Amino acid sequence: MLFFFTHMSYNIVLLGPSGVGKSHLAIALAYSAIMRGIKVRFITAADLMLQLASAKKQGRLDTYLKRSVLSPKLLVIDEIGYLPFDRKEANLFFNVIAKRYEQGSVIVTSNLPFSQWSTAFADDQTLTAALLDRLLHYAHIVQISGNSYRLKGKKSAGIVPTVEQVKQ
Question: Is pLDDT at 166 greater than 60 in this prediction?
Fold first, then answer.
């Protein structure tokens, strides 16, 4: 059964460089879950932070967390590390992962290896370690490699250098 991970509150972490299909895979998994009657929410990490900060400022953070973060059986957070979080945002994001721990599944995508995640979370090593501890405890980690699909045609035309050409 493909979606056993949602019944067990397991997570999926999709890692790899830009353009290799992490978001595409996350959306495909989310769509398949929806087709099986599983409640799903998809959001980018940057949009999640904006919404959390807005809810906190308006005094409705708990309501927002319950309805938008804890309610879905599967929460998909795209592009972790694309834009770094400040300390307040890092703490809010930690709360999301901590509250969902063993309560619901999370799919996250990131172009950063775990060793660089603290750079996305206000360089807070302790918070990052605690966040990764909860996120990865029951997680399937998928490392994707390769060149960007978006630049594939441009690379073959010689407009954009390939990874191999850049290394030379």
Answer: no
Residue 26 in contact with residue 56, Cβ under 8 Å?
no
pTM of the model: 0.89
User: Which tokens belong to 123?
Assistant: 């360089």
CATH of the domain at 136: 3.40.50.300
User: Would you call 40 exposed, middle or buried from its count of C-beta atoms within 10 A (0-12, 13-18, 19+)?
Assistant: buried
User: Do 17 and 162 form a contact (C-beta atoms < 8 A)?
Assistant: no
d(CA 45, CA 145) in angstroms, rounded, equals 22
pLDDT tens-digit map of 124-160: 999 999 999 999 999 999 999 998 887 776 656 666 6
Question: Which residues span the domain enclosing 32?
Answer: 4-167
- The domain tally of the chain equals 1
Q: How far apart are CA 109 and CA 140, in angstroms?
A: 12
Q: What is the pLDDT of residues 60-108, one digit of tens each?
A: 999 999 999 999 999 999 999 999 999 999 999 999 999 999 999 999 9
